[in-house]
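step 3/5: co-fold with FE2/S2 (inorganic) cluster
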Amino acid sequence: MKPHSFEYLRPASIEETVACLARHSEDARIIAGGLSLVAMMNFRLVETKFLVDVANIKALNYIRVDADHIEVGAATTQAQLLAWPELASLSPLLAKGMPFIGHFQTRARGTVGGSIAHSDPSSELPLCLITLGGSVMLRSKAGSREVTAEDFQVGLMQTSRRPDEMVVAVRFPIRKKGAGYSFLEMAMRKGDLAICAVAAEVRDGSIRLGVGGVADKPAVREWKDLGDAALDEALNEFAWDLGGSDDVHATATFRRQLIRRLGRRAILEARECRN
Amino acid sequence: MSQLNNDGRSSVSFILNGNPVTGYAEPRMLLTDFLREEMGLTEIHVGCEHGVCGACTIRMDGLPARACLTFAIQAEGHRIDTVQSLAQPSGVLSDLQLAFRKHHALQCGYCTPGILMSSSAFLEINHDPSEEEVRDMLSGHLCRCTGYVGMVRAILEVARNRISA
Amino acid sequence: MKHEVHVGKHVGRPMERVEDAQLLAGQALFCGDMPERDGTLQAAILRSPHAHAEILSIDTSEALLQPGVEAILTGKEIKEDSDPFLIVLRQPMDQWSLATDRVRFVGEAVAVVVAKDRYLAEDALDYIKVVYKPLPIALHPLEAAKDGAPLVHPAVGSNVVSTRHFSYGEPDKAFAEADRVVELTIDYPRNSQTPLEGYVVLADYRREEQVYDVQSNFQGPFTVHPVMSKALRVKGPQLRMRSPAFSGGGFGVKQAMFPYVVLMCIASRRVGRPVKWVEDRLEHLTAAIAAPNRIIRGQAAVMNDGKVIGFRFEQLDDYGAYLRPPMPGPLYRQHGIMTGGYDVKHMTITNRLVMTNKTPSGMVRGFGGPQIYYAIERLMQTVAVELGMDHLDLIRKNLIPAGSFPYRAAAGALIDSGDYQMALEIATRDGKLDELKGRREKARAEGRLYGIGYAVVVEPAQSNMGYLSTINTVEERHKAGPKGGNVAYCTVNVDALGGVSLTADSLPQGQGHATVLSQIVADELGIEPHDIVCNMERDTQRDPWSIATGNYSSRFSSATAPAARLAARKIRAKMAKIAAHFLKVSPDKIDFSEGKIFAIEDPQKTLRFSRVAGTAHWSPGELPPDMEPGMCEIGVWSAPELEPPNDADQINTSLTYGFVFDYCGVEIDRDTGEVNIDRYVTMHDSGKLLNPLLADGQVYGGFAWGVGAALREEFVYGEDGSFLSGTFADYLCPTACEVPEPLILHMESPSPFTPLGAKGIAEGNVMSTPVCIANAVADATGIRDLRLPLTPAKVAALIQGQEPARPKGNQATPPMELSDRGIRGQGTAFVAAAPELVWQTLVDPDQLARVIPGCHKMELVGPGSYRAEMSLGVGIVRGRFEARVSLTDLNPPKSAVISGSLEGPLGSSSGSGNVRLVAVEGGTRISYDYGFDISGKVAAVGGRMLDGAARVLMSQFFQRLGSLTEGPGKISAAPPSWWQRLLKLLGIAR
Ligand code: FES
Ligand code: FES
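step 4/5: write tokens
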């Protein structure tokens, strides 16, 4: 289990990075924490001509609060965000969801931008981002653009990032007034990728539920506040919409059941902690 | 921008267990292999090479890191610590190591250096952990021998002793 | 029989380990850390992506040209240089260290590259071209055992390669007289304890000496030494096997590495340099070993009062593709004790051994025990349910009575000692069973799912080396001569200054044997354990030779430990004699303490330990008359109770039998199906505990694996024989968050058959814990058929019933479910072009090449059949493949069948699909369905992504088809809407 060979580039800035992407395009892969990427490279599932290391670019490492969102630099580690003192008050959903990401050891290296860019359908951060209605900041030599989470992840580990673009930051909307949040996950072991994860945002008169681990990318539904029976129906509809598939760990049926049951739990819990 | 091409080995310098070192690696060389083969540090154990088992865990700038998911060149300019950094230079084992011995927290000992590195980093961040927090931290490691009981006891005891010291 | 209970100053105490300082400091040397000679080369192995295939050709020419490559070996070279491995059965099932003409499981070694470093060796693997012809497979044991099943070894004529019937007592009578017969069939899965360190082999052929010098982390190199030396065509001493003192876990698994030893020996001889191979995790999980999966149909003849008077067991044990010695050990190691902890006199056993296209089975901690106890204890729980009796009452009713030890079990085990009733009493009292029952009551009253499970296990230790001969008929055994015993060695050496060192035959894998040996020897010689240096390396050329040497079947406490005491006693006797000679007292009036040797009656008369030792070395002339000089003694031990099987097929399979009684409370989450262990109590009677700290360590470790086996661990195979558990993210070893701390209780009934009274303790929980948890789940749910591991999905399916129906009018694509043909899917797409145009694209190789994602080059190789090179992938994952595609059943422009196969370093795939074109307004509606198998690396490591990836590739295909037939202009005019519409049609976006 040793990787293929590649050339290694260590740009000193965002500008150098995008110049490098402009030159090498699809032949280049960005590495920050490397947790998903290097594992796949060791299995030789990923082959790349150029590896562009952005882990040390200071300009990618920050957490900033703007009017209605938290902007997190792409190379900020998951541990840094989780340890950020404002997190629980400004983003209860992230505070609840992030402990499910991997482990103490992997969060120390794994980055926020890396997880978003990798777009694993079972990852927690893309799920939180889409549930909150956040966005991804992309940069290329040609300029910057902001893409909503909804438009960013288009499928299984596929995003609308162009090969010459890099993820420079992720914007998580800050908690909405009067909203309650909950994040629940079923994984085979502590820290494993989700079999099914649900993220709920409940406000007066509305429910937003995101589901990860079931379809090829996380999915969100929004409902007007629903009564008990209607909620079950809505969750059932959502479950069947996503379908899910069988793998070695779980069946599609089980995943749909988790949407119904964990989804319900999460919504009730989020309702409870509205303020 | 620095660029290293794939066919040649280039020099890599970093601080290893407190001492500056320089070695040579081609870009794809994993830090596990580099530390074992170029630096002769056989305490770096490899159990999976895909980031799950934690046997290869080292500390990079004080934080735990999977050496098997890190390329040697990425260590350039950083501080890397292995289990050798725990004992005193005279060889006297640290409180954490002694507690592992006392509570029979190791059997084959293959997982142990990695677990010690995580635990030492963890205890610097969390001075007074609960058992649940210790177990949560340990979930980033696999041990096939011990059932984890001794480790949990050892880590909790060290935390308690450090507080009362 | 009189017991000698031996508690010394050190033995029996929870002493910290002498091994730990090195390990904690990171300074212990494991096999992979051993110094290598300059010029040592590294090996990488090419493995089969197919479960069963003929090898038509292997082309290594391009691979040989890759940088750093020194040699490549294939089956051809192996056949030239070696003979097939000996096997336990007389059946034509030849196997070599590389596949020769056929591969029989995914991961089977096909070629080995020897190169300057591992990176370069792996690079070259990608250039070896193997042409396979896939064959039908035998996968499920029951199917494979049927007539007409595809044969794994055609020369045998059947996949069932051994069948034996056994009858003890009067089973027919018992079953005729029983009030009822309770039956349960269990299907125990494949799993393994997967040590954290994989196999390591460093082979160095010394041409001038004609010796293969091998360092490896083999945990019992003597056991299969004859198999390896025979294969290499050398005399035993010409194969020198060395194992270092430290090993990163064994659990039996490191007995199965012998094919690699032979392979690296041949490689080293061919290249004239040392060759090293380090197994990686993917290789280990895929191809190292698994405990045999087993189907057991059990029946109990039961009286209405709960007394079980007879058992019948029909076992079908699955050994995978090859029968590697000492297989089929797991089927027979437990044979004498098939009645478990119960006093049941009548029993039949039918053992059948079946071969399938899976990784060969081998030794895994528990060695047949987890399988058989799963059957016995699930059956007993079922009996209790059927009788409406409390499970624990049923157990009590049937346990072997106290006071009847040594007890001869129906099939021949001579259970040395115990008091099972007392064990139950202590366990229920100290583990607070009543409180647990209260918790169950409360939980149930609140509508929660809560259950209590029990398990009784008799834990065998130190195998009778003759147990495997039970597989042969009485006549065959007579012909071959009796086999039994288990010889153990320990050497104690005292140097001229009184320094004590020892070597022993146990090859520890982390258990702390050096600590216990030093405790034993220290007690005998009146010195401190830390003053003794234990060298735990083994060397087949230098050390006393015993086939039993090594670490398995919990043989340490009952074999090596007694040998150590014998050796130490010999030293003691000799030193006492020398001291007596000097002190002018009788040798039996001499004692040893604190480094001194003195006259008991006059402690003033004292000699230093070192002085006495020195005399034996420096001044042999001063020794008492007739005494040999020197101070080195070997303790050799084999218990007389380990007799060969008798003519009634009774066999005392092990020397000692411990007792384990477990119970636990579990709660099942109704929503997630998770089984949460509320409390776990495990009671052990392992005779005299030599070091309670280490004994508990064995229990904790065994328990943790038991939890894994019960709830998470399984080697999963696809229906096409592909292996799906190739990573530690798929083979799920429990972490600290999944393993609770059990309450351990002990009692000590010393074994009368071992000098120290000790028995084994390392394997009990791997036998008791899986079934104890399953029994608790059965109690919670009332469900009888429980197959391990009890994963959340499985448990949820059992307790949740039918899921709510799809709402009316829900249009989503039907979900894809894994079915008998690997991955399947279907869908429709719309293309804004007439069917004729679409059809043309599909049948024109140039056009088709542009439509197939990642296709570089496509050439026509026959009518309607193409060869293509492609690089396929999803997201960042990408691999090179060679594809063969053919179009059949052409019905232009309406329908066609596309079928084909892919081969590449990431694996292989084959499948087919139907395409139908229908003209609709504005274009063509294409509907399609497909089914394909994927095998090899990508299936082993990327399982959870596979069908998602298939959908992505399908969508790319139709996107390209659309863009090609509709014309590029149109696409760029409105890409997002077009893209989205297509995705929607494909069911990918909505
Ligand atoms: S070897 Fe690095 S995590 Fe397993
Ligand atoms: S002590 Fe062996 S793996 Fe942890």
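step 5/5: annotate
Chain A has three domains: 7-53, 59-173, 180-272.
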